[in-house]
Amino acid sequence: MRILFVSPVFKPYSAGIGRVVENEAKGLSRSGFEINILTPLYNQRWIQEEKNNAYAIRRVKPLRQLGNAALIKNWPREDFDLIHLHYPFIGGVRATLKLKKKTGQPLVVTYHMDLLQDGFKGLFFKIYSRLTLPKILQAADKIIVSSLDYAQNSALAPFFLKYQGKIIEIPFGVEESGKYLNKEDTRRELDLSLSLKVILFVGALDKAHYFKGLPILFKALQLLKNQTDFRLVIIGKGERREFYQNLAKKEGVQDKVIFKGFVSDEDLIKYYQSADLLVLPSSGKSEAYGMVLLEAQSQGLPVLASDLPGVRKQVAPRSVGVFPVGDFRKTAYVLRDFFEKDKVDRASIKKWILENRSANLEIKKLSDLYKTLAR
């Protein structure tokens, strides 16, 4: 069966939706599906068309673009049996609806998150969502949400009764890494002392990911800097890196923070295995899931996250837990308590991920859904 993925972002831009699309493409390819991906060509230096063992990708030049918004007039005609749109896609919905109407093929929509922002951009997002969301939901044959908890607290909520027969929950999953190194080896390789408590943050440092909550974490660490010997290792790149470096200096924690920039997937696993804790301090509903929580816990790394709809459901029962959104004092309290006790059962965390959030479970549900719709 031939599946056409339509995604607002994809490699080489690193973001949550793009990572989900790639993970699904790889998993479905292993299950015998032929995967083609359509996405905007945001940078003229990027390769327009490429193919690997898992999927083929075509990057389409937009009529206009602004940040991660790209106005697409028409998608190129591809041979496929089903369209799978990853929403929100500012500028790509109309072209996808036209493709659905022209081909008559089934349309699956994954609703990732609400479009939220302050100021004029926020007003534009609100208007765009009001115009496009009802149309894409009506056209969809099935609507996938990664978490009913998030969906019922999102812009989807008013549509639940009308489209309850279409909506299905399929949590995003992670693959189990077969390579495990002990903490001593990874700390040595990454030049991190074994005596340190290592906190990990993984996220893009760009304007599009303003909601990741680093200012909250810096304020919490400022309360702890004289009490515990720790380092915050920040994995991620973006144009706001200098802003965050200056903010760390302003909060007086610059000596406690290490900006590593972009790292390979292989090295990221090493950081997960060498750290003591991952923190996701996101401050708004644009954070709908938190794939990094699953990635970290799949390595047995406990996590602490904001108590946001969707996000809180990705924290294993025996992990560290959640804290009130934006509450840096509570964050500091939980961190201090964790550093002093550290009685987390890492084996049970990995077991929960394997049983509830494995990529195999996600791919099996997607596969069954596709086959049902394409009959």
TrEMBL record:
A molecular function (GO) term: glycosyltransferase activity
Record's keyword terms, sorted: Transferase
- Tell me which PANTHER family the record gives: SULFOQUINOVOSYL TRANSFERASE SQD2
The chain positions of domain Glycosyltransferase subfamily 4-like N-terminal read 16-149
What the entry lists under InterPro entries is as follows: Glyco_trans_1 (IPR001296), Glyco_trans_4-like_N (IPR028098), Glycosyltransferase_grp1 (IPR050194)
Highest taxon listed in the record's lineage: Bacteria
Instruction: From the Swiss-Prot or TrEMBL record, give the protein name.
Output: Glycosyltransferase (Modular protein)
In its keyword annotation, does this UniProt entry include Transferase?
A: yes
Q: What is the lineage of its organism?
A: Bacteria, Candidatus Magasanikiibacteriota
Glycosyl transferase family domain residues are 183-322
From which organism does this entry originate?
Candidatus Magasanikbacteria bacterium GW2011_GWA2_42_32
